[in-house]
C-alpha cells in the first residue's frame, strides 16, 4: 500500500492508474479509523479497481471552540487498518500541503445548512465542500464513499456534485454500529463508562419517533416530541436538537410524508454525538 503525502505524488499516482484504465474509488476520512470507515473502504474495494483513502484533519471545518487540536491522529495505526480493508493508497497531506497559501476563492454553501448541525456550526460545511472539492479534483475519483451517519454532510455533498457537475458518483453507506446500537464514532472514546452505557439510547429514541410516524401520525411536531421525550428520559445527555425534515432537501415539514430524516445530537461531558434515521412514509398512508 502506498502512503502519499504530497499533491505532486498523488497526481502522478492517479495519472498512472488512469493510464491503466482503472476505476478509482475515494474514501475521504479524518483518520483515527474505526469500523465505520473500514466499511466504506471495503465497499469501495468491491466496486473499484483502485481505492484511495484520504486521511486529513481539515481545519476549515472546525469552529474556534471545537476540537481541531485534540482530534485523535495516528497514521501508523490507520495505515494498518486501511491495508486490512483493501485500500491501495493513503493520501495523508499536511495542512500546509493542502492549503499552501491563503485561498483566492472561497466556497460558501447556501442551502441544506440552516438545520441540524449546520445551524450551530457556521462555516463548517464551507470547509467540508472546499476540502472535498480538492479531493475530487486530485484523485479524479469515479466513485466516492461517505457514511450516512452524517446525513447532513452527505446531503450537502450531493448538492455540491450536482451544482458543480463533478463527474463522480456518490455512494452513501449505512451507519456501522456497536452491538448495542451505538453508532461507531471516533468521539466515542471520550465517553465515561456511565455515558457509554446510556449512549445507545440515542438510536433508540430516534426509533421511538420513527415508530410513531410509521403508525400513522401526520404531525411532525408529535414525531419529534416522541423522540425528544425518550431522549430526555433515558439518554443521560443534554439535547442539542431533535429534528424531522425532508431528505435530502432538509426542509421543515407540514405533514409527515415522503422521504424524511429524523436526526438528533446530544452532548455528554466530553463528547457530542449525532445519529439519524432516514425513512419514508407513503403519501396518504
Structure description:
ATP binds at residues 30-37, 147-150, 176, 184-187. Catalyzes the condensation of pantoate with beta-alanine in an ATP-dependent reaction via a pantoyl-adenylate intermediate. Its EC number is 6.3.2.1. This protein has two domains: 2-173, HUPs (Rossmann fold), CATH 3.40.50; 186-277, Pantoate--beta-alanine Ligase, Chain: A,domain 2. It contains ten helices and nine strands. Helix 6 crosses helix 7 and helix 9 (201-214) packs antiparallel against helix 10. It is α/β, with parallel strands linked by helices. The chain is globular and about 55 Å long. The chain has a six-stranded parallel β-sheet with strand order 1-4-3-2-5-6, sandwiched between helices. The model has no long low-confidence stretch (mean pLDDT 95). It has helices at residues 7-19, 35-47, 75-84, 95-98, 116-119, 124-139, 151-164, 193-198, 201-214, 220-234; strands spanning 2-4, 24-29, 50-55, 89-91, 143-147, 169-173, 238-246, 258-267, 272-281. Strand 5, helix 7 and strand 6 form a beta-alpha-beta unit. The longest helix is centred in the middle third of the chain and has 16 residues, at 124-139.
Give a short overview.
Beta-alanine binds at residue 61. The protein has 285 residues and is an alpha/beta fold. 38% of the residues lie in helices and 20% in strands.
Features:
2 domains, 38% helix, Pantoate--beta-alanine Ligase, Chain: A,domain 2, Rossmann fold, 285 residues, three-stranded antiparallel beta sheet, alpha/beta, six-stranded parallel beta sheet, 20% strand
Amino acid at each position: 500500500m502506498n502512503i502519499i503525502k504530497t499533491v505532486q505524488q498523488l497526481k502522478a499516482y492517479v495519472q498512472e492508474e488512469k493510464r491503466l484504465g482503472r476505476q478509482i474509488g475515494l474514501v475521504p476520512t479524518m483518520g483515527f479509523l474505526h469500523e465505520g470507515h473500514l466499511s466504506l473502504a471495503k465497499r469501495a474495494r468491491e466496486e473499484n479497481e483502485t481505492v484511495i483513502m484520504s486521511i486529513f484533519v481539515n481545519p476549515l471545518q472546525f469552529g474556534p471552540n471545537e476540537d481541531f487540536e485534540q482530534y485523535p491522529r495516528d497514521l501508523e495505526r490507520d495505515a494498518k487498518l486501511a491495508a486490512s480493508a483493501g485500500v491501495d493508497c493513503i493520501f495523508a497531506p499536511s495542512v500546509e500541503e493542502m492549503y499552501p497559501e491563503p485561498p483566492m476563492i472561497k466556497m460558501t454553501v447556501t442551502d441544506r445548512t440552516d438545520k441540524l448541525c449546520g445551524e450551530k456550526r457556521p462555516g463548517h460545511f464551507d470547509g467540508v465542500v472546499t476540502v472535498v472539492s480538492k479531493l475530487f479534483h486530485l484523485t479524479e475519483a469515479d466513485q466516492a464513499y461517505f457514511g450516512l451517519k452524517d446525513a447532513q454532510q452527505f446531503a450537502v455533498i450531493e448538492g455540491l456534485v450536482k451544482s458543480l457537475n463533478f463527474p463522480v458518483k456518490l455512494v452513501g453507506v449505512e451507519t456501522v454500529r456497536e452491538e448495542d446500537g451505538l453508532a461507531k464514532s471516533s468521539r466515542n472514546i471520550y465517553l465515561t463508562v456511565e455515558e457509554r452505557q446510556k449512549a445507545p439510547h440515542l438510536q433508540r429514541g430516534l426509533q421511538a419517533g420513527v415508530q410513531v410516524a410509521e403508525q400513522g401520525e401526520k404531525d411532525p411536531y408529535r414525531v419529534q416530541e416522541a423522540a425528544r421525550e425518550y431522549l430526555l428520559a433515558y439518554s443521560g445527555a443534554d439535547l442539542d436538537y431533535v429534528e424531522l425534515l425532508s431528505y435530502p432537501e432538509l426542509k421543515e415539514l407540514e405533514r409527515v410524508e415522503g422521504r424524511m430524516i429524523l436526526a438528533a445530537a446530544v452532548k455528554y461531558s466530553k463528547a457530542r454525538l449525532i445519529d439519524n434515521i432516514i425513512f419514508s412514509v407513503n403519501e396518504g398512508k
